[in-house]
Specification:
Elements lengths: L1 H22 L2 E3 L10 E13 L8 E5 L9 E4 L10 H4 L4 E11 L2 E5 L6 E3 L2
Parallel strand pairs: 1-2, 4-6
Antiparallel strand pairs: 2-3, 2-5, 3-4, 5-6, 5-7
C-alpha cells in the first residue's frame, strides 16, 4: 500500500507542471515568434492601431507591445469582418488585451488574423 501511495504521489508531482502550463498557456508578444503554426493566446498592450482604408482588403492592424514600424506581433482584422468589431483601432488602442487564434507569420512578423470579437479580450 505504501508503494502505491508513493507511486501516486510521484505521478501527481510529475504531471502537475504539465497541467498548470496547459491552463495558463498565454504567450507574450515577444514569445509568439517561437510558436508560429500553433493555436495560442497572445497577450500584450496595443502599442499602435491603424485602419488601412486605402489598402486592398481594408485591413485593420493592431501591434502589441511595440508600435509600427518596429512591431513584434500584429493582430489583423480584414475589412469583411471589421463591422463585427466597430472601430477596433479606437476600442483597443493602448489597452492590455489577449487575442486567441492560429499564429502565422507575415514578413517574419508573427500575427493572428481574427474574425470574431470572441477572439479578443480586454484585460483588467
Amino acid at each position: 500500500m505504501r508503494t502505491y501511495r508513493i507511486a501516486l504521489l510521484l505521478i501527481i508531482c510529475l504531471a502537475l507542471p504539465c497541467i498548470t502550463k496547459a491552463q495558463t498557456s498565454h504567450l507574450t508578444a515577444a514569445e509568439a515568434k517561437n510558436h508560429v503554426g500553433e493555436t495560442a493566446t497572445v497577450c500584450g498592450r496595443v502599442a499602435s492601431a491603424h485602419f488601412a482604408e486605402k489598402v486592398k482588403g481594408l485591413p485593420t492592424f493592431m501591434n502589441l507591445d511595440m508600435p509600427y514600424p518596429k512591431q513584434i506581433f500584429t493582430i489583423v482584422i480584414w475589412g469583411a469582418d471589421r463591422p463585427k468589431f466597430g472601430n477596433p483601432e479606437r476600442t483597443y488602442n493602448h489597452k492590455n488585451i489577449c487575442v486567441s487564434g492560429k499564429i502565422t507569420s507575415h514578413r517574419e512578423i508573427p500575427e493572428i488574423v481574427i474574425t470574431t470579437p470572441g477572439q479578443i479580450q480586454i484585460q483588467k
